[in-house]
Amino acid sequence: MRKFKNYFVHMNSGLILIYFVLPIIFYYNLVVADGFWAPGDGVSSYVPSRAILKEALSHFSLPTWSSYVNLGVPYYADVQNSIFYLPNILFYAVFPLKFAYNYMFLFHLSLAGTFVFLYLKQIGINRYAAFVGGIAFMFCGALNVRLGHVTIYNAIIWLPLILFFYEKLIASQKKVYIVLMSLAFSMQIFAGFIQVSVYTSIAMLFYFLLSIKRYPSIKNWIMDKVNFSAIVIGVTAIQTLPLLQLASISERTKISYEYFSSYSLPLKSLVTIIFPYIFGVHIPNTPYNVYTYSYFGEGNLTEFGFYSGIIPVTFAVIAAITLFKKNNIVRVWSLLGIFCLIFALGSSIPFINKVMFEIPIINSFRVSARILFIVDFAIVVLFSKQLDLYFKENWNESNHRQIIRQIKLILYCLVGSTAAILLVNKLLKTLLNKASGPLNTITVKGYSVSDYVSIFSLHNSAVFIPLILMGISTIFLLIFYKYNRSTMMYPLILIILLDLHSFSFYHEKVTTDYNNTDEITQYIVRNNANNDRIWPLVSNNSDFEMNLSPNKNTLYKEDIISGYATFLPESYKAITGFDERGSNPEYLQMLLNNEIISTLNTRYIILNNEISNVINKINTIDLQKTTIISDFGKYTLPASADSSMSLVQSQVKIEPNTFYKFSVKLEKATEKELYIDLFGDQYDSNAQQMILQPTGLEQSKYFYSDSVVPEDVYFRIFSQSNMPSNIEYCKLEKVSSANNSGKEEVYTKIMNNDRYALYENKRVLQRMYSVTQTIKSDRSYSQLSSMNLHEQAIVDGYEDYHFTEAKVDITDERDGYIQANISADKLSFIVFSESFYPGWHAYVDGRQVPIYRVNGMLQGIEVDSGQHIIKFKFNPGSLKLGYIIWLVTLLYIFVYVYRKKLFVRRKIG
Which portions of this protein are annotated as coiled-coil regions (predicted)? Predict the structure, then answer.
């Protein structure tokens, strides 16, 4: 018996070992390539964030605050940084950054196969069928399209392990499996993508409800779920409490129905179940010249890709049809797979989508297609269940009939697909030949009609490769039942690997390298001794390629004022104009209002050469000298009729390459937005439009005219308000040139290369500075644009006051900490140019003092006269509370698991 058990263990261990070898073979091109395996968000977000974690672990600590982006952020609070995720801690503590980042992907593929194998065996599926099922899931589309979304694939793989422990719990009724299941789910949360955990919760709820009858009593079922929930909440409090605090400062969790509906799976994308690349690929001819057409479908394949192979899908369909009434597992996963597919379709089924939008928590996330990983997992379970029947020794007529059904199903797909492709090709050719006019000059999503003739033809690899795979699958099944099923497992694995390789291998499997060869980056790294901030000005998508763009600056250990962030304070966005990607549509306002960027410690500005003429022009103008071009004066804009706009306009003369200014003031706030803009023939830019929100009374905006301006341009005011808008004034002014003899140069050009230019802000303030006047805040911060922020500051909860200027000497500065010597004759006010956030504490000579919000973004303290040492430290209470709850939960787990033994020992004693 012991020999049999040892053989069984060794056999399973051998199969699991294969899971850790296969990814290296499957993605051999990545293994031998140099650079980071980081397409998409990986290059701009995940590699930089893991570099921060790696740096902290090298000092035997976990990072809590990072000054690299957005004036500093609570690094530990953003769940996507995954600092409590155990594989992250192990890999980044032991291995070099590049190796750890790259091989985490392969490691998680191996875990995915292993966890699926364990789950399938636990629900009674044959070892060989379970092994093949693990391979089918570890290389399925929903998992392998996520190379650029580290946190998503890290989180997905824990679903089968959670269910494995749940099945062990039901089978043994041992409470230790509640703990293990809770820890597995906690690990999924720590992995860093809450949306995946929410969707996993949906699957678990469904699974739990359908398992009630398998419990001895409803009371046991309820108590197990209560303990499971309590342990998960307690263990993850160390992450969820800081996350909730961070989310509270952002409106990221409050989304509109339109945003919620974005990236729903389109109905036409269902065809990718068979033809995964029929709508093209993201990166053509990569890594080999197999697929040549760029993606022209809706959304993108990273969100919509869920190809799971011809044989797994057809096996799953047969299992759902023939075993639905006979087998509970088949019933559960058939229903759950269908439900999740409908959920993924989202706005493609408006009624259901609107119902989902009303459900709390679920309505906090967009991209309903992200639930497709459960669809792929359902397909794998059903496929494995059907395969399990074929691997049984007793081969009967029923098995024979099911094989024939499967062959027929694949043949129907093969013949039907071929006929459909030929029909579409014929229709397109007919349209091209018979249509009058230059039809072929018209393009749809970058392709002409003749291009589509080639795309929807048997010559396109995205068409003939799936057809060939259908043919191979049919031939394989024809001979499958004639030979020993165990022997046929190997060609089956080979066919499935070949099938999934045709999709997963070609989706964004590219590498990215970070280099320091750019002379602009080299100059900054060499000369930025005070670690002043940089503004990588992103004016278009190509600007994200610059070395110091958000958040790639992290790899060069340079701080920037923008950043790629999951959560961003609303006040910061409103004042600076930055969005979560680090771009700024209102960058011109920031450049003109040098006061704001100077107080944010911004010494260097990198911008593309196309807009460098704008910053050169700024050095030659005087914002205080303007000429009125048009003024509507005191005017009442009538209420709009029905849904139309109420509009008034005046024709004006606009000069090219010139600065202008909009300014408006209302007698009282309107109920809807008021728009002010310039409009002409092919002259309508958002940059030359100002929107006054319903709560606003007064606003101004500068803009730069285009190099080509039409003769007829109109200065317009318009609104959809149902009430009249009483306007005190609405002006268009031209900004005049300065007297060059007295004009101080604000931005000095240092260098440029073929794409970018580097400028130095000559009026930059250091990271900590003093002001001589504070102004009581009204929380709108609208005065900032007209203030001298080198001397003045708006302070929340503080009265107007005049201070003496203090001498500030910064002596120590690092993430989450700064120290300075302060010297002043009288009372002074010190501003620390770091994000105002709960958890910061300030000390003057060791005595804690209150911190005030300054200019809506920064921190400030009051310091008495004399010489003092001041310190700012980040020591968040939410993290402390999380640790306490975590420790209490560990104690609860110990008592919960060993309570019977403890009780027996006490009774004996």
Answer: none
CB 538 within 8 A of CB 544: yes
**CB < 8 Å & 24+ apart, contacts of 584-587:** 584/537, 584/538, 585/686, 585/687, 586/701, 587/537, 587/539
Pair 647, 716: CB distance under 8 Å: yes
Residue numbers in the chain where pLDDT is lower than 50: 1, 3-5, 7-8
CA neighbor of 726 nearest in space, from 814, 641, 664, 817 = 664
How far apart are the C-alpha atoms of 635 and 730, rounded to whole Å? 9
Q: How far separated are the first and last CA of the chain, in Å rounded?
A: 38
pLDDT in tens, 681-707: 888 888 889 998 887 788 888 988 888
Q: Helix 328-345 to helix 372-391 angle, to the nearest 10 degrees?
A: 150
pLDDT at 908: 54
Q: How far is CA 336 from the centre of its chain?
A: 26
Q: What is the chain's Cα-based Rg? A: 32
Paired with 736 in beta bridges are 622
Match 């911060």 to its residue by tokens.
781
647 forms beta bridges with: 718
Query: Which residue's entry shows tokens 């229903």?
Result: 335
Domains of the chain from N-terminus onward: 2-395+481-504 (no CATH), 519-617 (no CATH), 629-744 (2.60.120.260), 768-875 (2.60.420)
Cα–Cα distances in Å, from 353 out to 251, 266, 334? 22, 13, 21
Tokens representing 316 are 């799953």
CB 714 within 8 A of CB 649: yes
Q: Indicate the pairing of strand 674-680 with strand 635-637.
A: unpaired
Question: Among residues 201, 237, 174, which one has the least CA distance to residue 890?
Answer: 237
Sign of CA dihedral 395, 396, 397, 399: negative
| Chain segment 169-186, per-residue pLDDT in tens | 999 999 999 999 999 999
CA dist., res. 206 & res. 185, Å (int): 16
